[in-house]
């Protein structure tokens, strides 16, 4: 990814970047694979399932410092230059919603 950014002169043009969440995590230097702190925006703990639906507010990440909260490498881009892929997120939410529906209901047959 670093070579790709250098080849496209990212620093010169200060482009905005939009990608799926794995690409964004890679660009921000987060550890790949299953990790405790997988969100690059909040300090959301993925290994605390008892808090996932009861705790409404998680603290925001203050920094992307190497060695702290699953940050492996220095970030390649600034956090302010990242755009979240809204259509990708919406499709994922709708897919999970449809999976949770009962097959026999009228709403499911309507879809």
Description:
The protein has 111 residues and is mainly α. It has one domain (2-84). It has 5 helices and 2 strands. It has helices spanning 2-7, 10-13, 21-27, 86-100, 106-110, and strands at 17-18, 82-83. A two-stranded parallel sheet has the order 1-2. Strand 1 (17-18), helix 3 (21-27) and strand 2 (82-83) form a beta-alpha-beta unit. The termini are far apart. The relative contact order is 0.17. The mean pLDDT is 85.
Quick description:
By secondary structure, this protein is mostly helical. The chain is built from five helices and two strands. The chain has one domain (2-84).
> What radius of gyration results from the CA coordinates?
18 Å
Please provide the count of β strands. 2
Report the biggest beta sheet as strand number plus sense, adding barrel if it closes.
Answer: 2 strands, parallel
Output the helix-strand order. Answer: HHEHEHH
The helix/strand class is mainly alpha
Low-confidence stretches: none
Count, helices:
5
Strand order of the largest sheet: 1-2
Strand content: under 5%
Distance between the termini: 39 Å
Structural domain count: 1
Mean pLDDT: 85
Approximately how much helix is present in the residues? 25-40%
Shape: globular
């Amino acid at each position: 990814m670093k070579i790709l950014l250098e080849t496209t002169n990212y620093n010169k043009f200060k482009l905005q970047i939009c990608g799926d969440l794995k690409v964004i995590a890679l660009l921000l230097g987060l550890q790949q694979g299953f990790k405790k702190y997988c969100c690059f925006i909040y300090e959301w703990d993925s290994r605390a399932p008892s808090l996932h639906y009861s705790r409404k507010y998680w603290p925001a990440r203050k920094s992307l410092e190497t060695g702290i909260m699953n940050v492996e490498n220095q970030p390649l881009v600034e956090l302010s230059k990242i755009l979240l892929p809204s259509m990708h997120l919406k499709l994922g939410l709708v897919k999970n919603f449809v999976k949770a529906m009962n097959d026999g209901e009228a709403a499911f047959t309507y879809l």
